[in-house]
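Inverse folding, one chain.
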């Protein structure tokens, strides 16, 4: 069974107005990044269930982002924008103080080992 993100999911993200990026290697297409050009979110098919994560500059205190795994969302602009928060409401003040968001997608991409390519253009910008 493949847990690759479906074309329907990628299309819904683009229809919400976000550009979508994935690794060109099909083995890594269980997840994608999406952006409005500045803010960056992450979506993953985790054993058949979609979940969102925030994306921030790596830090010792709280890694590279917060999983929003237990936070239900819709594949709408409002639902997906939840991945743009600095930290979820359950994060401690210590964690919140440590988070530094990437200034834009270009800066994020420069620091990555993995390569990404745009697979969908946001439609409703």
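Residues assigned per position:
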């Amino acid at each position: 069974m493949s847990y690759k993100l479906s074309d329907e999911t990628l299309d819904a993200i683009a229809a919400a107005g976000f550009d979508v990026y994935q690794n060109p290697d099909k083995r890594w297409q269980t997840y994608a990044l999406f952006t409005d050009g500045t803010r960056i979110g992450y979506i993953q098919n985790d054993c058949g269930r979609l979940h969102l994560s925030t994306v921030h500059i790596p830090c010792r205190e709280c890694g590279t982002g917060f999983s929003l795994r237990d936070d239900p969302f819709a594949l709408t602009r409002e639902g997906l924008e939840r991945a743009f928060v600095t930290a979820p409401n359950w994060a401690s003040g210590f964690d919140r103080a440590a988070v530094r968001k990437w200034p834009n997608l270009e800066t994020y991409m420069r620091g990555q080992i993995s390569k990404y390519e745009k697979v969908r253009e946001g439609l409703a910008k």
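The beta strands are 19-22, 31-35, 40-46, 49-54, 117-120. The chain has one domain: 7-120.
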